[in-house]
Amino acid sequence: MHAAEQQPIAQHLARVPLEDRQIMLDEMAASHRHHPVKWPVAYVGSLVKRYHAGDFIPAKAHLERESRRLAAVRQVALREREEQFISQLPPVSSVETARHNLAALRDALRRQCGQGGKRGSVASNTTPGKSAEAKFVATATGFSLSARLPASRFRQSRVNAATDQSFHPEESLMVTLRRTQVDAAIDAFSRSSSSPFVDGYDLDGERAILVDLIADGDPDPADPLFARYQLYTEREQSLQSMQDLHTMRQEADALVTVSNALKIRQIGGLSSDGGDRMNLHTRDAMRMFLGRSVKPGEKGYPMAGGKRVAAALRALWSLSANDNPYADWKPIEISERIAGLRHAIALEQRNILAKLDAMKQKGLDYTILQSREPASLVLGFASPYGYMIATLLVELDYLVRVVKSAVLRDLITSSSGFHRVSLAKHKCLSVFHFAVGCQQALSRPELIRLCRTDFLPIGDAAAKQRVESARALLGPVPKDVFMGQAQPRHSRRRVKHLSDAELRLLDSVPLSDDAEEANSAAKPLVQ
Question: Under DSSP, is residue 491 helix (H, G, I), strand (E, B) or coil?
């Protein structure tokens, strides 16, 4: 985000309550991680607009919030490790101590030279300059001549346990093996038929054997298993590289080239390109699609239209991705009510069409009325529930046409026709307002994060508060819905196959606030 964009974004967010501003910023940040946001100001403005319209449902904000929390935890852990490391360092020697140790070092060198008979005897095993430098470091830091530095911090060279050769800590085991005689024991490692390596190297088996060395982080090279530890770390890095390459190649077959594999990311989402249209011939059906808002300056209640209901159902559909049981239950109820309403409309249509067909057999061939200029509406809904509402509206539109055709041909009275149309519209509005009410209840900030794990006894105070609020607003969720036995027609919930123990745990969860039921359900959980 550029500095010039911060002020316009702040102006947009000023129209949103303070407690919801961070949610919108997190939503934008999480979206930017998946697909770069080119116009942050316009993006935040659209979120604010959706917020005031009641259509804003954060889908990724919780991911950014969790990432920020984990980053803070890592910073605290890193700071603690740094403080622990500093506390374990030896104290800094004073000038007097350094001079005293330097004098002792010189005396020791003179004694060695005197015993060997030659000054060159000091270098019989190593270079004098390097030996003196190493001993000076050891003594100048406050240690005696016979003391050694901690191997985990100041070790300058190591000895490979398998080759008995010195090597640099940064040098890999394979480089050491190429220049030294390899001990046959280096080939002793666990093998598995499912190993990703050609030689069958088993990471899990080696991890169980080397658990102590892995926990140490910097084991002693003198350990008999140190060579296997080195090989384990290299194989672990190799596996990570193989997995990264596998991900980069989009999990394609090895015969597929990388350039062809990357083309899968270039494929855009499916769209109808504006080809989905709904033609309405009656004003009654068109008004049911548009809805009716309250006139500015007047009091009243708005009428939810098909467009608003489609957006509400899309929001519930999105909430089902959070494993929210209410986002599964309410779409089931709405779908059942819409199916029952469509069945009632179809029966009414058949009754009137039967009368028209009877007149046709007698010689009067009547047609169904239709508009000379029907309203053609581009749909483009983002969820299957939007098309469910469109289907209901065209069924209602056709019923109105059939009823008015029968009234015009004197097959039913005008009052009867008016009553049939009004009853169908009233039932549609009942379903519409029920769907919008459910969406508004579950979209409250305190219920956005509601999920099935909140119902478990291990939930914290915030989880219990979310469950109590949902029960108070919408009632207890049915057991078959909570267990996943009853599922909505369309859901974004993706759950793996549950084990028997997990099913028993879910089955024992109390779904109502009845104290007796809750106590009896908690017994198998506490053992």
Answer: coil
Judged against a pLDDT cut of 80, whether residue 158 lies above it is answered with: no
Count CB-CB contacts under 10 A for residue 111.
10
Tell me which H or E stretch contains 63. helix 61-88
Please give the Cα distance from 246 to 231 (Å, whole number). Answer: 22
Within 13 Å and on the Cβ side, how many CA atoms surround 441?
20
What is the pTM (predicted TM-score) of this model?
0.54
Widest CA span of the chain, in angstroms? 139
For the chain, the straight-line distance linking the first and the last C-alpha, in angstroms and rounded, comes to: 53
CB 280, CB 393: distance < 8 Å: yes
Give the residue carrying structure tokens 């009004």.
422
- How long a stretch of residues is the chain? 527
Angle at 415 between CA 349 and CA 393, to 5 degrees: 40
232 near 210, Cβ under 8 Å? yes
Phi, psi (deg, nearest 5) at residue 216 = -65, -40
CB burial of residue 511 (10 Å; 0-12, 13-18, 19+)? buried
Question: In sequence order, which residues have a C-beta less than 8 Å from that of residue 444 and are 6 or more positions away?
Answer: 469
CA distances in angstroms from 290 to 283, 284, 377, listed in the order given: 10, 10, 11
How far apart CA 470 and CA 326 sit, in angstroms, is: 8
HSE, CB side, 13 Å, CA atoms: give it for residue 303: 14
Tally of CB atoms within 10 A around 318: 18
Q: For tokens 């980069």, name the residue.
A: 248
Phi, psi of 462, rounded to the nearest 5 degrees: -65, -40
pLDDT digits (tens, 9 = 90+) for 163-207: 455 545 555 555 544 444 444 445 678 888 888 888 889 999 888
Helical segments of 91-225, H only: 95-116, 128-140, 151-154, 173-179, 203-209, 211-216
Tell me how far apart the alpha carbons of residues 49 and 41 are, in angstroms, rounded to a whole number. Answer: 12
Q: Which amino acid is residue 292, in one-letter code?
A: R
Dig out the tokens for 285 from the structure. Answer: 């059906």
How far is the C-alpha of 342 from the C-alpha of 388, rounded, in Å? 11
Question: What average pLDDT does the segment 18-42 reach?
Answer: 81
Name the region of 142 (left: φ>0; alpha: ψ -120 to 50; beta: rest).
left
Is residue 521 within a helix (H) or strand (E), and if so which, with residue range? helix 515-522
Contact yes or no for 396/421 (Cβ under 8 A):
no
Sign of CA dihedral 65, 70, 76, 79: negative
Position 69 confidence tier, pLDDT thresholds 50, 70, 90: confident
What tokens does 233 get?
């770390």
Structure tokens given for 517: 């039921």
**Burial (Cβ within 10 Å: 0-12, 13-18, ≥19) of residue 240:** exposed
Nearest to 222 by CA among 159, 176, 155, 153: 159
